[in-house]
Amino acid sequence: MDMNTVLAIAGVIVVAIVVIALSVWPGKSRKRDLDRAMGKTAPDDKRTRDAKAAADARLTAEAEAAKESEKAGGAAAGTAATGKSAADAESVSPAAKPAAAESTPEPAKTETPESVGSRLTRLKAKLAKSGNPFGKALFDILAKDNLSESDWEDVEDTLLLADVGAEASAQLVDDLKTDARITGKADPAEVRATLKDKLLDLVGRDTDRRLNVEKPGANKPGVIIMVGVNGTGKTTTAGKLARLFVSEDKQVIMGAADTFRAAAADQLETWGARVNVPVVRADKDGADPASVAFEASAKAKEANADVLIIDTAGRLQNKANLMDELGKIRRVTEKNLPVDEVLLVLDATTGQNGMAQAKVFAEAIGITGVVLSKLDGSAKGGIVISVQKELGVPVKLVGLGEGPDDLAPFDPEGFVDGILA
């Protein structure tokens, strides 16, 4: 066989192989395409298939977890969607939890203060139940058939211990000694009636105890400045006084001019929030109290409020310092509104010990009335008599307890009846 024949045969074989290869390759390509279209993967893509299956399973689990969390209303719904476990969700700080999981706080409910008439009845009952040793001791002595000089000395001692004061005590003993209903063989009813009359004379049965802001023709807004040493319940009394005005349907604004004591403004705001009374305060502790008083008086004037109550600092470093600060507060307030009332808050339980400080406040700003806090009907009831005699101004309000409505206008007859009950 010659060379040409061999080459021809080899060429035919090569062509045949090429033809066969070309016919087989498209079939395999079509099969691979068909497998992919049917969701199958070539054996070489097993890793990809496993990863996809794992991802599908994880997403399905997360979706189920999210649904369960939404049903339970839990805060972990957001963390479940990002693949975090329930333990991870518990570790998230409250500030970082979804807003949907936070509950909106309910607004504070506005309280309705007790009426004045109800307060007077309740406070009189408190005095009567207090077992007052002041009135009881006096009655026990004076009810004797024949009073010796020693008995009269006991009467005077009892009055002094009750903080009636030396001058007033001596006056009352002299009046009782000359009264035939006491020196004669009187029955207990006559003794009690006589003692009541004498005490009412000392307390001042006809004294005008109305707050100046409530008198006919009073300014509007009426301005009341509260003064007194720390610890007497001054800020608390300011809050209670606001409630008293609210019970009379008056619009009230308070000014927190006690910037020396850090908690004073917060305390006043707490009282105001309970009866919907706005409070003007400084934006920082230690601010100028006069600037607070000025802003409060300006806002009260703008709002045409009925009453503005300004609470002041109770520190008593020295007399000059006190006069300067209180004087400045009054002056800047009067650039907007006249000051109608300056109420001195005294703790009745301190008795005569608080009189010296009371006199300093009286000289510093010119008080117009006294509020006796903590007048619980104990042995210190005579402070009502001595404070009026020493300061020359009436007791206008009294507080007999810690309750928010335990503040009422001072009623002389009710007070005397209470301590003699």
What does this structure look like?
With 421 residues, the chain is an alpha/beta fold. Helix content is 53%, strand content 10%. The chain has helices at residues 3-37, 46-72, 77-81, 86-91, 116-129, 133-142, 149-161, 166-177, 180-183, 188-203, 234-246, 264-274, 289-303, 319-333, 355-365, 383-391, 412-419, and strands spanning 222-227, 252-257, 279-280, 307-312, 341-347, 369-373, 395-399, 407-409. α8 (166-177) runs antiparallel to α10, α10 (188-203) packs across α17 (412-419) and α13 packs parallel to α14 (319-333). The protein is elongated, with a radius of gyration of 44 Å. The model is unreliable at 27-31, 33-45 and 73-107 (pLDDT under 50). Keywords: Cell membrane, Cytoplasm, GTP-binding, Hydrolase, Membrane, Nucleotide-binding, Receptor, Transmembrane, Transmembrane helix.
Question: What's the CATH first level of the domain at 212-411?
Answer: Alpha Beta
Corresponding CATH superfamily of the domain at 212-411: P-loop containing nucleotide triphosphate hydrolases
Strand portion: 5-15%
CATH architecture of the domain at 212-411: 3-Layer(aba) Sandwich
Mean pLDDT: 76
Radius of gyration: 44 Å
Mind describing the biggest β-sheet?
8 strands, mixed
Q: Roughly how much helix do the residues carry, as a percent range?
A: 40-55%
